[in-house]
């Protein structure tokens, strides 16, 4: 059964006006709110845009400053690393020089020891503790002292090289970090709103972590400590190099000076030995002449004795014969007296000649003994001269003290 349709309600004109007025005010309020919201949104957009620009500009400025700081410290580290590398190279050169200097000491030392050993082969009176031996012993002491000093210096150089390399290691380590940080800072400073996202373009292994433990002051101090340590070691190394340079010059000069002193003493000693040998040879030559003269004198004395024995026998025979005269004829006449005197005088001459002959024989034996002594002494001097002039001189001629 169909429903009965009712007629729509009828409103009064006042109600219609009120409804229209209500709708108008509602739309007006809504429009006003929309206008205010639009204005607020526009202001917010402008404010946020300005804030973003300011923040991004501030971030860019800070990143640029940070990049400059990182670049500054990177350059400082590079400079110190370059200086340290050069210092290590120069110290290695000095180390090689000290090692060569140590090696060059063995030759002069061996020559000195050989000279001392050879001079022990001198004999008799020539085995003397002379000036040459004193200078050779002093030369040995000088070389031993130089060797010990160079050895200690080499140990100091090796230790300084170790310290320099340690400082170089920390500089390189810090510099690697600075290079990586510089690339990251450059990347960050180049990013803009149109650049791809950080997750897509940021270098691998980097993450945004605001809670870092290292403060800027600690960051600067870390590099400053590495640089200060490197500078300190480089300064120590430079001082050590200067000290070693002077040491090499001084030690070479000391060895050269003592080598020359020992050489001068050896030359003087050779001259003394040669002069003594020449004097002995001159004496031997004169002695040989005197021996020949004494031998002639001895022969002359023997002849003289033999010459006197004949007349003595004649005189003795005459006396014996005249002693056979008979009785009164056995007269002590002038002839008898002359014969007796002749026998006495001849006997006296022969006795004196024989005494001279004995003395001459003794003198000849003494001269012969002196000849043997002189010949032995000349042989001693020849041996000493051979040792000093030939062996020792040749040993020392092979030695040259160069600048280390």
TrEMBL record:
One biological process term in Gene Ontology: cilium movement involved in cell motility
UniProt entry tagged with the keyword Cytoplasm: yes
UniProt key word Hydrolase: no
Gene: tekt1
Assembly information from the UniProt record: Microtubule inner protein component of sperm flagellar doublet microtubules.
Organism: Ictalurus punctatus (Channel catfish)
Protein name: Tektin
Compartments it resides in: Cytoplasm, Cytoskeleton, Cilium axoneme; Cytoplasm, Cytoskeleton, Flagellum axoneme
GO cellular component: axoneme; microtubule cytoskeleton; nucleus
Keyword annotations: Cell projection, Cilium, Coiled coil, Cytoplasm, Cytoskeleton, Flagellum
PANTHER family membership: TEKTIN, TEKTIN-1
InterPro entries: Tektin-like, Tektins
Pfam family, one: Tektin
Coiled-coil residues: 270-304, 343-377
Stated role: Microtubule inner protein (MIP) part of the dynein-decorated doublet microtubules (DMTs) in cilia and flagellar axoneme. Forms filamentous polymers in the walls of ciliary and flagellar microtubules.
Protein family per UniProt: Belongs to the tektin family.
